[in-house]
């Protein structure tokens, strides 16, 4: 029964220009544009999912659908990709906004600081001020969610949920000890290897490999994530990962204490 309900839930895919970079946004529910929908049915709350790294938003579609169902389909659930982690398919229209916050380029947008500013630019441009926000951060998305609370207190965030949060001492964790040398010291070797192996590979072969991998992991997604094997996207994910290891060190207890009620 649950699977049947989830199949009926509409999910709309958009690519928008945010901070000068094309960005994938998956919108669960019938609301595509919160600004133009001025009728009484416009939702008063947006559930906004910030992914981990790599920031492939399509992996969060089943979770978004479940949230949408559990809230009785009253509130939209949007998932945004990280900047540089999703490339629009050929001939896909990139939506633009007239606001300067969206058109202005963000310095080092593929790094950790830039990714935070990237999410802030999107929220300020695509979400009306009167629509309240519920932030859900996964992994490094939890760190980004906390930074949103710190840097933009004017945003109407009423709740923040941190799922498997990586908000402190990432390089000291068991996985961090393994990943840090590769992401920080040998990342250029990873870039070159990725480009040499994946750049010549035909898109059909990449799609087949991804489908087989998802099947082995028993993962289902209605949006085929070919960006998983795009050298450009993988390089940006590795670059972000390296910055995470170096910058996410001490937990910011002041932010948590200040917004504990959320």
Tell me what the structure shows.
With 262 residues, this protein is of the alpha/beta class. The protein has one domain (2-258): Rossmann fold (3-Layer(aba) Sandwich). Helices cover 42% and strands 15% of the residues. It has a 6-stranded mixed β-sheet, sandwiched between helices. The two termini are 33 Å apart. The model has no long low-confidence stretch (mean pLDDT 86). Its main location: endoplasmic reticulum. It is found in: Endoplasmic reticulum; Lipid droplet.
Give the strand order of the largest sheet, numbering strands 1, 2, ... along the chain: 1-2-4-3-5-6
Helix proportion = 40-55%
Residues in β-strands, percent: 15-25%
- Round the mean pLDDT to the nearest integer and report it: 86
Number of strands: 6
Determine Rg (CA atoms, Å): 18 Å
At CATH level 3, the topology is: Rossmann fold
The tally of structural domains comes to 1
Question: What's the story with the biggest beta sheet?
Answer: 6 strands, mixed
Distance between the termini: 33 Å
Structural class by secondary-structure content: alpha/beta
Could you list the spans in which at least 5 consecutive residues all have pLDDT below 50?
none
